[in-house]
Design a protein that fits this description.
The complex is a heterodimer.
Chain A lengths: L1 H11 L7 H5 L3 H7 L17 H20 L5 H28 L3 H13 L7 H15 L7 H9 L2 H6 L11 H6 L6 H10 L9 H11 L2 E3 L12 E3 L9 E3 L2 E3 L4 H13 L1 H15 L6 H13 L4 H10 L14 H11 L2 H5 L3 H8 L16 H4 L2 H17 L5 H9 L5 H8 L4 H10 L1 H4 L2
Antiparallel strand pairs in A: 1-2, 3-4
Chain B lengths: L5 H8 L19 E7 L5 H4 E3 L3 H6 L10 E2 L4 E3 L4 H8 L3 E8 L7 H10 L9 H9 L3 E4 L13 E4 L9 H10 L4 H10 L18 H13 L6 E6 L8 H23 L6 E7 L19 E6 L7 E3 L20 E2 H11 L5 H8 L13
Parallel strand pairs in B: 1-8, 1-9, 5-11, 5-12, 6-7, 6-8
Antiparallel strand pairs in B: 2-4, 3-4, 5-10, 9-10
Helix pairs in contact in B: 6-12, 9-10
Classes of the chains: A mainly alpha, B alpha/beta.
Chain lengths: 452, 375
């Protein structure tokens, strides 16, 4: 039973904190189920963080100031600097909040699911706008909606300012819309393409370029409030009729009458409920929780639950909790850098894991939060994370942590963190270490701690 | 991920514990070597290779080095004084330039511009052209970078190496670790090829140096110049977005780049003769200086070719001129030469890739290959 407790903490959760394994040992499954609770997301410490809307308004103002300075040929270096400082500081505060919450939350299964979905619906920092908003996007679009239905979550994510900006929908204009005709501006298909390919049905559904174009036409009009739309909803997600492409659309064989803002919503809802989407999500969940080659049985059972419940996400999580594959003794998945750092922070402390220099640690391990390399998000496969350079960097990191954490009893720490999941070889290597810091480095680098 | 030659890591790091035999790259001993260096941020080509154009003074006067300090190529262009080593390579016919070069990208965003430069494919393409060319040529790619850059992403096997951020672990810890990993195939394989570093790369300490161009290029030279080293490599050099007070900043960057190219030549040793290095940026910068003694995002940029394979000592391509009516959108050096066409010519003549594969698969949207770049 204590093995199950360790698995609940490390495979479902984000790595055991001291005492966590013992605390949940009574009924690990019930502990996990208890986290599927709407109250949990409100515990996220967002008091000092600002909304997407406020952040975007700040950025728009900063840009206008710079523009003015430029037009009057004034010196804008200071303004440019203050803008980039605003952007940088926001990213830093968001990263800090996410990191400390991951280290202390009592609902780590819930938090793992938040991170899973934030990665599925990636919005990554790639320019000042997306950098400033990536954290707020995760807090506003993902965090409150992961216990809802996939349809809800998808709509909240795809139509959030963050995604509309990240995948260029704010630049997309219906060619036959009022604005399109006047300004000769046109479609940007980026969001539509990624919705089909990555967020919902995947190429398995056999959609065509026409489907991409049709969806992108339906999505025109969904944008972020800006003065030129004559709206006072500055920084908010808005639907602007006069850039929306008029007319009915046909996506994957189904016709959607032009109902304005609702047209895209109805298409997104249908895509969200497709069996292809069910299969895609089932596979990704199974891959995340079990192995890079996820078992067919589990995929099938998740897919069935998805379709039977109309994409109710809690039903999927309960399938995971009940699945024997997730309780298997053998640990297969190598932790991503984010998982490694989070689990180490939970066991030691954020301070000792990052040693006052989070940016260097994230850069070195090549996974800075909110900066996924593409709309597909961070890879979720062990292969990707454990190449030679990656292992070198993990060793350097663990070495540094261990040298700064003398007085830590590595053997006890390992038992706190892994419980019965720790192997005799690792315990022996740690026991035989020549110093307490070497022992801690070996513990952090052991295959047992590097996997989940 | 594939391992990098163990011996190379030993040399890079001074000393290390010997672990089980490292694997090697599939090709490369006799083969030709190709290195792509991306200068991220928009390098100011007009500061690197300065035209003897009467317009230049009005556009840039105070932020360029004095004419008498510039290194004259005797063909209407002069190199920045910090590029003396590059100048000597030009004299040896091991350097060539193409000015006013650009991808089809005409926006102003670094990230979108880099995406285009690194994919150079049809819309929606998400593999990099360098990876597609590896699929055609065989062999493996190496990035000197913390992660695999977009140009190298795709089906073909690639790996990366990056300078340490923190100091290395002791030999004793490494020995114990390899022992601990012995029963675990995944970790023991990664360990065997990683060859841990007991000290900072090449003896130069300090985290501020890990972004030093010269160190990164020198490392690339060592890794690729080793016996069985890879035949395709990519290095990202960040920090070229010079909006304000650029003269001093560029002076330092050009100096590092200059040093780095010479270090690359030295480290590649005999392979330099069969090497081609292509250096370019996502876009150039505005022709006219801005109000803060810097330049803003522009269009036409500079492509530099280095290596013994290059048909050097020449400037290729068209020069669009700098008069107001010749500038793109009235502000940028016009895009007169296509970067895809340059890369196509290089990969065809240097790496021996056939025109059909280049046209259909690697650069499907690029114009005809530029000829004669390779000796």
């Amino acid at each position: 039973m204590t093995l199950d407790a360790a698995i609940a903490c490390n495979r479902f959760g984000l790595g055991a904190r001291r005492g966590e394994i013992a605390r949940v040992a009574g009924d690990p499954a019930a502990w996990l189920d208890g986290q599927l609770n709407d109250k949990v997301h409100t515990a996220f410490p967002a008091q000092n963080l600002r909304s997407s809307e406020d952040l975007l308004v700040d950025l728009i103002k900063a840009r206008q100031q710079r523009q003015k300075a430029r037009q009057s040929n004034g010196i804008d270096a200071a303004l440019a600097k203050s803008m980039s400082k605003l952007v940088r500081n926001t990213l830093r505060s968001e990263t800090h909040a996410r990191t400390s919450f991951g280290a202390m939350t009592d609902a780590p299964f819930h938090e793992r699911l938040v991170r899973f979905w934030a990665n599925h619906f990636t919005v990554a920092a790639r320019n000042p706008q997306t950098t400033i908003i990536a954290g707020a996007y995760e807090r506003e679009a993902i965090r409150p909606n992961i216990l809802s239905s996939f349809t809800d979550l998808a709509e909240r994510a795809i139509l959030h300012q963050g995604m509309l900006i990240y995948l260029d929908n704010i630049q997309s204009v219906g060619p036959s819309s009022r604005v399109g005709k006047r300004r000769k501006r046109g479609l940007n298909e980026n969001l539509a393409r990624e919705v089909l390919e990555l967020h919902t049905v995947t190429p398995e559904a056999g959609y065509s370029q026409d489907d991409v174009e049709e969806l992108s036409k339906a999505l025109t009009g969904w944008t972020v409030g800006h003065k030129r739309f004559g709206t006072d909803a500055l920084g908010k997600t808005v639907f602007v009729e006069h850039i929306h492409e008029p007319g009915a659309r046909r996506v994957l064989g189904k016709r959607y009458a032009d109902s304005g803002s609702d047209q895209a919503r109805r298409i997104l809802a249908d895509l969200s409920k497709s069996p292809h989407t069910a299969h895609h999500i089932a596979t990704k969940l199974a891959r995340h929780f079990v192995s890079d080659r996820p078992p067919e049985r589990l995929i099938k059972s998740l897919k069935t639950a998805f379709l039977d419940s109309d994409g109710d996400l809690k039903s999927l999580y309960r399938i995971l909790i009940d699945a024997p594959e997730l309780w298997a003794t053998e640990t297969v998945k190598v932790k991503s850098p984010d998982e490694l750092l989070t689990s180490a922070s939970r066991l030691l402390s954020v301070q000792s894991v990052f040693a006052g220099n989070p940016r260097d640690v994230f850069t070195s391990l090549a996974q800075q939060p909110f900066t996924a390399p593409s709309p597909a998000g961070w890879p979720d496969s062990s292969d990707h994370w454990i190449g030679p350079d990656a292992l070198s960097k993990r060793i350097e990191w663990a070495n540094r942590v261990s040298l700064r954490s003398s007085n830590v009893d590595a053997r006890a720490t390992l038992k706190d963190g892994l419980g019965e999941q720790v192997s005799p070889q690792t315990l022996q290597a740690v026991s035989r270490a020549e110093s307490s810091s070497q022992a801690l480095a070996l513990a952090l680098l052991s295959p047992d701690f590097q996997r989940r | 991920m594939r391992p990098i030659s163990r011996r190379v890591f030993l040399e890079l790091t001074g000393a290390a514990t010997l672990l089980s035999s490292g694997a090697v790259f599939a090709k490369g001993v006799e083969g030709r070597k190709f290195i792509f260096v991306i200068l991220r941020g928009g390098m100011d080509g007009l500061s690197a290779l300065i035209p003897d154009d009467p317009e230049m003074n009005g556009l840039r006067g105070p932020i360029l080095p004095a004419v008498q300090e510039r290194l004259d190529l005797q063909n209407g262009f002069r190199l920045h004084p910090s590029l003396a080593g590059v100048h000597s390579l030009y004299d040896l016919k091991e350097a060539a330039f193409i000015h006013a070069a650009a991808t089809p990208f005409r926006g102003r965003s670094h990230f979108d511009g880099q995406d285009v430069l690194e994919t150079l494919g049809k819309p929606g393409e998400n593999s990099g052209w360098l990876n597609r060319s590896l699929q055609a040529s065989g062999g493996e790619g190496l990035a000197v970078d913390y992660a695999i850059p977009l140009a190298l992403q795709g089906e073909a096997p690639v790996t990366n190496w990056s300078p340490p951020v923190f100091s290395g672990a002791s030999d004793e810890l490494l020995a114990r670790l390899s022992d601990l990993y012995s029963e675990d195939p995944v970790f023991s394989e990664a360990m065997a090829s990683a060859q841990m570093t007991p000290n900072i790369t090449m003896g130069r300490k300090g985290r501020n140096r890990r972004k030093n161009y010269s160190i990164l290029l020198e490392a690339m030279g060592r890794l690729m110049g080793a016996e069985n080293g890879p035949n395709v490599g990519m290095v990202s050099l960040d920090g070229w977005d010079t909006h304000a007070n650029q003269a001093g900043d560029l002076d330092r960057r050009f100096r590092q780049l200059n040093e780095g190219v010479l270090a690359l030549k030295k480290e590649l040793g005999i392979y330099w003769a069969s090497t081609c290095v292509v250096v370019c940026s996502e876009f150039g910068r505005t022709a006219k200086a801005n109000g803060t003694r810097g330049t803003d995002h522009g269009t036409g940029g500079l492509v530099m070719l280095f290596g013994g394979s290059v048909n050097g000592g020449q400037i290729y391509g068209d020069w669009p001129g700098l008069r107001a009516n010749q500038l793109f959108e009235g502000r940028d050096l016009a895009p007169a030469n296509d970067i895809g066409a340059i890369l196509k010519g290089v990969l065809r003549d240097h790496m021996g890739l056939d025109s059909r594969t280049l046209g259909a698969y690697i650069f499907p949207d690029s114009p005809r290959a530029l000829d004669r770049l390779i000796a």
